[in-house]
Design goal:
hydrolase; eight-stranded parallel beta barrel; TIM Barrel; Glyco_hydro_1; three-stranded mixed sheet; GH; hydrolase activity, hydrolyzing O-glycosyl compounds; Glycosyl hydrolase family protein; 14 helices; globular; 43% helix
């Protein structure tokens, strides 16, 4: 039973590997770049300073899972003890865009089993924790790693994409089962990108390409929640080396009743499909409200707005706009349980989607990297103080297990 609306932020903990111009492989660790390993105590106090009770947070998976059945919990023990002492509720982020070096990458079909083992070990170490995001943004991870060639395996084929997607979704589901063995009332908030593809022109190529991509955008949720895909997408999966047995595994292993559908929305989430099939960012056309309605209609699950941001000086107006979308969904009967500005502090090198190591600060945070509050931080604190009591009473009694 959840009786409190979740106002959250997160500490950005991406850690994919990229290839530098000199050919060397480089681990992009956002917590290192943003100074969290040095200022972690201060960062948790900043969360409390804003009146935020929920924090999307997790250890660096690549540094914590040191081998099969082997873990380094030193930093994790310190940070989660501090979070508990401050009365912050973590939404535990177990895998965020990367894997340990010994796993290599998301093409490794053995990884889901190792990851489930890691998830259970984490839950056993912290059995009081209830909220988890086992694998963050599966669709983004598979796309950037295996279709666009930017991260990790840096491949560029539909076969590689389907392989990565299958492994990521299987790891996600297996981790949920593993955690439930320890914490039977665990709640899984699956943070995932919320996408839409617009056809620029009414020609056949443009319309067909947009229609396909608007089916494909659901794949990570479809597999995780055991939702039947269309014939078009089923053929795509089979043509790219997913077997019928692998596909059917998801429908027999899903645990939808423990899930909250987390939808992330940024200015880059809507796309324009051009006459030649190419794609570009369209900017906001439908917005979070309309697109989230599409996802909710498909899965009928409780919803949480799990990520958004924009750089200064547009941040405050963007916060107001996203909040208006969230509240309108709630007024329309969508069981939306939370909202997140991501992240607590500014980020680094997301202007190139972490593909380059430029140390370029991106002003997305509620605080800057000197831990000074930004105008959007002030605005978010004010929003929480004004809306928390109202929404707590409206949210009271929502049983996410039986929706």
């Amino acid at each position: 039973m959840l009786n409190k609306f979740i106002f959250a932020t997160g500490i950005e903990n991406s850690y994919p590997t990229i290839q530098l111009p000199n050919g060397k492989i480089f681990r992009v660790d956002e917590m290192q770049k943003a100074g969290h390993y040095t200022f972690w105590k201060d960062d948790f106090y900043l969360v409390k300073e804003l009146g935020i009770e929920f924090l999307r947070y997790g250890p660096s998976y690549y540094a914590t899972h040191t081998g099969p059945g082997k873990y380094d919990w030193d930093f994790t023990d310190k940070t989660f003890a501090a979070i508990k002492e401050l009365g912050i509720t973590p939404i535990v982020d177990l895998c965020h865009f990367g894997v340990p070096d010994w796993i290599e990458n998301f093409q490794n079909s053995e990884w889901p089993y190792y990851f489930a083992e890691y998830a259970q070990a984490f839950a056993e170490r912290f059995p009081y924790l209830q909220f988890y995001t086992p694998v963050n943004e599966i669709h983004v991870t598979a796309t950037f790693s295996a279709l666009l060639g930017w991260w990790n395996e840096r491949l560029t084929s539909d076969k590689a994409f389907v392989t990565a997607l299958r492994n990521l979704c299987k790891a996600n589901v297996m981790a949920m089962h593993a955690i439930l063995k320890v914490q039977p009332r665990a709640i899984f908030i699956q943070s995932e990108t919320t996408e839409y593809f617009h056809a620029e022109e009414p020609n056949e190529c443009c319309l067909e390409r947009a229609a396909f991509l608007n089916e494909k955008r659901f794949l990570s949720f479809d597999l995780t929640y055991g939702h039947p895909v269309s014939a078009l997408i089923y053929n795509y999966l089979m043509d790219n080396c997913m077997t019928r047995k692998e596909y059917e595994w998801f429908s027999t292993n899903m645990i939808k009743k423990h899930c909250v559908m987390g939808n992330d929305y940024y200015l880059s989430n809507e796309h324009m499909v051009h006459h030649d099939g190419s794609i570009s960012n369209s900017g906001e056309i439908f917005g979070y409200y309309a697109i989230t309605h599409q996802y909710f209609s498909r899965y009928r699950l409780p919803v949480m707005h799990t990520e958004t941001n924009i750089s200064e000086p547009q941040a405050v107006s963007w916060l107001q706009k996203e909040w208006a979308n969230v509240y309108r969904l709630k007024q329309d009967g969508v069981p939306i349980i939370g909202f997140t500005w991501y992240s607590l502090t500014d980020q680094v090198d997301w202007d190139t989607a972490l593909r380059e190591n430029n140390s370029q600060v991106n002003k997305f945070g509620l605080y800057d990297l000197d831990r000074q509050i930004r105008p959007v931080g002030e605005a978010y604190r004010s929003l929480i103080s004004k809306w928390q009591e109202v929404l707590t009473s409206e949210c009271y009694g929502l049983n996410i297990y039986n929706f």
